[in-house]
Amino acid sequence: MSGRVRLILVRHGESVWNVEERYQGQADSGLTAAGVEQAEVAAAELLARFGTPDLVVSSDLPRAWDTAKAYLRHLDLDAKQDVRLREADIGSWAGRTFTEIAEEYPDDLAEIGRGADLRRGGGETFADLRRRVWQALVDVATMAAGGADGGATVVVFTHGGPIRVAAAAALGLPMPGHLSFAPPVNASLTVIGYAGEQKNNSVVEYNSPTARAARATRAD
């Protein structure tokens, strides 16, 4: 790679299940009216702060892709979808409220709070999530750097879980390092300076809100 790549991670706008305090995982409930507005605000801030990026990539889940489309309307760029940028697979917990899960699985939630990496609802572990998300970011950073003379900028539309594990991976924090990071709010920006897989990467900015009344949920 030649030069540092700036990875700008954008959490999707507010979804219906964010408002209803339901676990989402890889299921999807669509953006609320507020979420659509947040996507437009995030797009304006991205354009004002970072100009035209070298590459745009998004999770294929509708809440992330619809957030990305608000930004893409202002650019003469095609975006790539990458399933590796999806939220964690949480199996049978998807669609259920936080209250229901807390009542049914109090021991699991207590263990998770202490750092245990359980398969929530029979889905993925956070280690699984971190491996696939970080590899996706390494791949897009390498692709962007290959087409740029110096530094490159990549805008990535994704979810709360992937942003937390990506920040931990960038800093080389051992599992469960993501617990050091608060859940990102809807339509927030997190900026990672990527210099290479074995180099000194950095988290330049974390969870910077772009919209008022944006939500931070315990799970995405």
TrEMBL record:
Residues where substrate binds: 11-18, 63
The species this protein was found in: Nonomuraea phyllanthi
Gene Ontology cellular-component terms listed: cytoplasm
Location of the active site: 12 (tele-phosphohistidine intermediate), 87 (proton donor/acceptor)
Coiled coil residues, start to end: none
Gene3D superfamilies noted in UniProt: Phosphoglycerate mutase-like
InterPro entries in the cross-refs: His_Pase_superF_clade-1, His_PPase_superfam, PG/BPGM_mutase_AS, PGM_Phosphatase
Taxonomy, superkingdom: Bacteria
Recorded GO MF terms: phosphatase activity
Protein name: Histidine phosphatase family protein
PANTHER family (UniProt xref): BROAD-SPECIFICITY PHOSPHATASE YOR283W-RELATED (PTHR48100), GLUCOSYL-3-PHOSPHOGLYCERATE PHOSPHATASE (PTHR48100:SF62)
